Amino acid sequence: MFTGIVEELGEIVAIEHLGDASRFQVRGPVVTEGAKHGDSIAVNGVCLTVVDITEDAEGTRFSADVMAETLNRSGLGALDIGSRVNLERPMALGGRLGGHIVQGHVDGTGAIVDRKLSEHWEIVKISLPAELSRYVVEKGSITVDGISLTVVDAGPDYFTVSLIPTTLALTTLGVKQAGDPVNLEVDVLAKYVERLLGRDNGTQDKEATS
């Protein structure tokens, strides 16, 4: 479980293509501190399992296997060597929930539509798959490339977020431009509510016709 508070900007240092999967090597000295085989690290909002950890003259890196399903459903397949990525370790039990509940399970991808610069922040418009729009509400939470953000405006196929200087400086959203893809994870609580209400309605309808 993650919170969407990015700990550091890492870098893709190697990609090994394995047919229906790829093995990524990611440099990230902060998130690899104390990490071991089998631990989880979120890369641009995608929960990946650490295969091994190595060190070289430029710092510590970890490797993770990415299956075809993940490559197809997220923006990880578009990454190249040298790409910067948002990294976060799972929240420790008893830690502070700085953002919101993030599973690291990408629901879909969007793209940067445009950016509007203000004096102290930026408004960024991001496209949204139509099937996810019902989970996105004004002032609600959404995860963009692993970053917990608050929705400013929610449309039928887009939403906007307001980014403070810290977010711009410490995450990939500071450099992404119009057309660049982003991973999206909607608030899991909204999906559970929808499922529960659907079951309740289904039960009531069945009872009414029996």
Automatic annotation (TrEMBL):
It is an enzyme of class 2 (transferase). The keyword Repeat applies. SUPFAM superfamilies: Riboflavin synthase domain-like. One of its GO terms (molecular function) is riboflavin synthase activity. Keywords: Repeat, Riboflavin biosynthesis, Transferase. InterPro entries: ATP_synth_asu-like_sf (IPR023366), Lumazine-bd (IPR001783), Lumazine-bd_dom (IPR026017), Riboflavin_synthase-like_b-brl (IPR017938). Lumazine-binding repeats lie at residues 1-100, 101-197. It holds the Pfam family Lum_binding. Pathway: Cofactor biosynthesis; riboflavin biosynthesis; riboflavin from 2-hydroxy-3-oxobutyl phosphate and 5-amino-6-(D-ribitylamino)uracil: step 2/2. One of its GO terms (biological process) is riboflavin biosynthetic process. The keyword Transferase applies. Its EC number is 2.5.1.9. This is Riboflavin synthase.
